[in-house]
Structure formats: C-alpha cells, structure tokens
Amino acid sequence: MSTPLSTAVDVAADPNWWRQAVVYQIYPRSFADANGDGIGDLAGITSRVEYLASLGVDAVWLSPFYPSALADGGYDVDDYRDVDPKLGTLDDFDEMIGALHAAGLKLIVDIVPNHTSNRHEWFRQALAAEPGSAERNRYIFRDGKGPDGAEPPSDWPSMFGGSAWERVPDGQWYLHLFATEQPDLNWDNREVRDDFLTTLRFWADRGVDGFRVDVAHQLVKDLREPFPDRASLDLDNLPHGSHPFEDRDEVHEIYAEWRQVFNEYDPPRTAVAEAWVHASRRARYASPLGLGQAFNFDLLQSDFDAASFRRIITHNLTDARQSGASSTWVFSNHDVVRHATRYGLPAAQGKHQNGHAWLLSGGTSPELDVDLGIRRARAATLLMLALPGSGYLYQGEELGLHEVGDLPADAMQDPAYFRSQGVEKGRDGCRVPLPWTVDGPSFGFGTGTAHLPQPAWFGPESVQAQDDDPSSTLSLYRRALSLRRKLQAAEELEWVDDLGDSVLHFRRPGGWESITNFGAEPVPLPAGVVLTSSPLGDETVLPPDTTAWIS
Ligand code: NOJ
Ligand code: CA
C-alpha cells in the first residue's frame, strides 16, 4: 500500500493542504457552551479541540460567529471584524485558533458578502441618509411602483418567503434576497469591494487559513429596469449569466481580486464557494484564479442510489479536473435535514428525499426507519471519505445524529419558519446543541440549558456514550479518518464493474478500494477488508446498505 501524503509532508506549509482535506463544520452556537448561558461559544470550541483532533479531521469551518441579532442564525452580520459578545472576544478567537493550529488543524471562517444585517453601521447610516445619498448607495434602494410608490419595485420573492423588498419610512424600498434583516449590498460600489478586502486581510492576518463564501453566486446584480417578473427568474431556464442576480459572469471579477489577497499569504489562503449554480458553471468559482474550490451539493441532493451516486461522482471529478480544483463532497450541513434522517425515510416520488414533508408533520410521517437511516448514512459517509477531493462533515453526523423533527413552535428560531406561514419548518432541527454526555442539564453541551431544546434520545447518542464503543458511529468516523490519512493517494479514481448495478466499487491509486452495496441482496466481498461501515456477519459477504474499504 502506498502513502503519498505521508506524515513526512509538512502539512502546515503545504499550499495544497485543502485539496483532500476533511473539514468539520461547526455551528458555533450549538457546539459547546463554556460559560453555561445556553449558547455555544468560542471558549467552548477551544475546550473541544482535543476531541476534534482525535476525530481526525484536518480543518474546522466555523459558521458565522460575528456580532448578530440572529435573525438568520448569524448570517446577518452586524460587524465583519469582531466576535459576537455572546460568543466571546477577539482574544478568545486568538486563543481558539492558537489551540487549533497547535493541534494541527486549519481554520476556515464563513464570510457573508451578499448582505449585511440591518444593524450594521452602514445600514443604520443608509436609513438616516437621503434617497440618492452615498450611504444608500452601499445597498440597493429603489423607489416603489404605483402612484405613491407604495408597491415594491418588483414582485421578486425573498428566499425565506414574502417579498424581497422592504419599505423604509421615507417611502423607498431596499432589496433583501433573504430575511428583511439582511439588506443586500451593492457590489457595484467600489467602497463595498474594498471593505471586504479589508475584512479578508483582517482574518487572514489573524491566522485564518481559508474562507467559506456564503451565497457566492449572488453578489453581482443587473438591476436595470424594467425588472423581469418572478416567473422568469428560474436559473435553469435562462441562458447562462443572464439571470438578474444569480451566477452573473461579472461576479468573478470580485473573486479575482480576492484571490490576489489570498496569494499575499504563505501558504495562500483558500476559499470554498457556496454557489447554487448549474454544474457546468461551478468550475468558474473553483478556478485557481478565483475562490479555488466550490461546494457541490449533488450527493446531498441525491437519494441513496448507486446509479445516481455514480453519475454525480463521475461528473464532479471531471469538472474538478477541468477547473484545476479538487472536488468537494457533502451530505449534511446547517441548512438541510441530516442525512441519517433523509436516508431513513421512503424515497420521494421522482424527487430526492429532503425530509420536508416529514419535518412539516413534526417528525411523524412518513415513518422514519431510525436504524436504516444510520446504516445508510454510515455507508454513504465511508464511500464519500474514499473519494478523491475534500469531504465536509457537519457537527453531530459523527454521532449518527438524526434530525430533531418535533421541536415545539415556540422554540423555533429560523426565519424560513416565520416568513413562510408554516409552509417551511426551517432548519432548527439540525442545529440542536450537541450531546456530549449521557445526562446532565444539556447533555454536557454546557452547565445550563441549551438554546434549542434537546430530545431525551440525545443522551444515548452522546459522545460519552459512544466514546469507548467500537461499534459506535463515532468510532467508525475515527477509524475511517485515521485510515484515510494513511491510504490517501493521488486524486484519481477507477471504477471496477464486477459486482452488478447496485454496487459501486472503485479503486484509488496505491490499492485503496471502496465497495458499497446499495442493493437488497448481499454480494461477495473480495479479501483484504480493512474497515466496514457496519459489522459483517460473514467476512466474505457484503450485506445491503454497507460499505467496505479494502487495501
Ligand atoms: C446560506 C447559508 O448557508 C444559510 O444558512 C443562510 O441562511 C443563507 N446563505 C443566507 O446567508
Ligand atoms: Ca455560552
């Protein structure tokens, strides 16, 4: 077995560290609460660095920790160059990054450039200033339609429901593609561009290794009037680059400037784009002249199905090769129903199972097969960790956590819930604070209660309960991540078509193989198994919904 990325490589100085890194996403308010106020904080993360290091991930991606009123879970940023006092201070940040680096872990922070919060100093100034002023020109203000301008400038919807325009007291309207509290910035304004370059340097100077760029595809807008109506806004039906605010070609001029900033550092800072664009357009974001890497959410949007997994893997590896990036893989994050739950629900007719109906039912219907969901999630994750490229994990998936489907209405925090009049349940169910211990006031999350209520079944799923259990999901993740480091090889994959259409079998350079049985029948298993996602009854047979690694 060959080990091209052996420990002899000085990973700290390796400019390519990100290409096949495993990145663990922390949603800071729900990870660990050091001061017992119910909200996760930076000191809590510092206290768990050992856990992250022993898990075996390479980097941590921190969702926003900036001052925020939490109108959208922190994606409404009041100040891009500070820490929310509820989460700590800049000193706490320095301590956290110091501890992560000392443990050999990189840090990626979330940057939210499409919109500020409505409490940002700029937006306060914009509201206090006149229509047409320089202060308003940092945002997107327009006069309304109708005789007294009382109708919004267009019928565009916000992503969270309701209109994308909000009226201010002097009668003008501002654009917010997300919540009302998230006014969109005007990226045609040089001052906005320069300010973000300052922010990137601010964090890069503090040692941050990379950036996750929120809604990277929406910054640039063509707002020439008349505005097209909402019926014609479907990105899939428009010629590439012609949508008024999604995936316009000019957005890459911004990222070319960012790249120059990243390259001022040694090793260059990295970035990964959250860009919901057509697969053929992803390479532009992932270009080495731009952000360098882009999320591909294709696996996250797929059912547990051999043919569609294979199609997705093949396409994305080809695309990544063409862009010069490595591919990214992800099943769960803070915006979607956890994959253990999606895979435990019956496939949706014709669409992928996103758990939407199940969430709306309060987690009762369709019926969730808890064990099947975890079994498939473990198999899928093991497959994913064997793929060339980098894997993004979401906190709690290493415990095999299911979505919390029965949060009471009065606990909800997500604007998607409040703005949609019950059409959406929102994303709180994957953001419930982690269980660290079997019991205790918040299962070890902190010494007090948690800001979202944790269900009783969190105790048996806690880190403490799984720590010493070799059959636990936590033990599987630890073993897989440790083996992955040893087996890691060049970014190549070769399919082996020997076990039928319901099985995905591929080989990486150096003799690392992964076999996943998506079918209903057991299949013969070659010799040399080093890890399986679930225990085998018979060493020569791979049961359904199981992955085996061979080396
Ligand atoms: C994408 C983030 O992942 C999501 O949580 C957020 O609500 C929107 N962008 C708006 O910032
Ligand atoms: Ca706290």
Helix content: 10-25%
Could you tell me how far the N terminus lies from the C terminus, measured between alpha carbons in angstroms? Answer: 7 Å
Count of individual beta strands: 17
Largest sheet: 7 strands, parallel
- Report the average pLDDT across residues: 96
Percent strand: 5-15%
Shape estimate: globular
What small molecules accompany the polymer chains?
Answer: 1-deoxynojirimycin, calcium ion
Q: Which blocks of ≥5 consecutive residues have pLDDT under 50? A: 1-9
Helix count, DSSP H or I runs of 4 or more residues: 14
Question: What is the CA-based Rg, rounded?
Answer: 23 Å
What does this structure look like?
- It is a single chain.
- This protein is 25% helix and 12% strand.
- Residues 1-9 have low confidence and may be disordered.
- The chain has 14 helices and 17 strands.
- A hairpin with a 3-residue loop joins strand 12 (503-508) and strand 13.
- The strands form 4 sheets. Strands 8-7-3-2-1-10-9 form a 7-stranded parallel beta sheet, with helices on one face. It has a 5-stranded antiparallel beta sheet with strand order 11-12-13-17-15. Strands 4-6-5 form a 3-stranded antiparallel beta sheet, with no helix packed on it.
- Bound molecules: 1-deoxynojirimycin (NOJ) and calcium ion (CA).
- 1-deoxynojirimycin (NOJ) is lined by residues 72-73, 75, 112, 178, 214-215, 274, 334-335.
In short:
By secondary structure, this protein is an alpha/beta fold.
